[in-house]
Amino acid sequence: MAQVAKLEEETVQQRKAVEKLKRKLESAKKDSEAEKLRADVRRLMIDFEALRVSAAASEEKLRRHMEDKRDKLNMFQAHQKSWKEGLALKDEELGLFTKIVETQGQSLAGLTSEEEGLRKKLLNYKEYRGKRALQR
After folding, report:
1. pTM score
2. pLDDT (tens digit, 9 = 90+) per residue, 14-51?
3. CA–CA separation, 97 vs 118, rounded Å?
4. Residues 98, 127: contact at Cβ < 8 Å?
5. Residue 108: helix, strand or coil by DSSP?
6. Distance CA 37, CA 32 (A)
7. Residue closest to 125 by CA, chosen among 13, 79, 58, 133
8. pLDDT at position 76, please?
9. H or E, element range at 13
10. What residue ranges do the domains of the chain occupy?
């Protein structure tokens, strides 16, 4: 009987040891899974940081591109404005010249054929400029 009691006691001790080992194993598995999750989180953080840096670089590149385009547009608009001012000045000069020619044409009833040809060319040009202005 003493042996049976002793064996039963050893069995109980072994069961306790087995339970303790099972708990340690489960704890180790949880720790292993937790470590895997931590490693995944670290990888994701590294990937996120790389994406953030890439996005910042792309944003800076786009900003510089837009500034270049804005500068080119401003230069073009300035050129266009000066060109239009030049055309307006030429139109004004042409108008004054036309008035002078018309006034002289009225006072000089008998223009030569060459002068009459120049007058017609001038009037045709004035008409052409008017049509061009309407097209814009």
Report:
1. 0.42
2. 999 899 989 988 888 888 898 999 999 999 999 999 99
3. 12
4. no
5. coil
6. 9
7. 133
8. 92
9. helix 2-107
10. 2-135
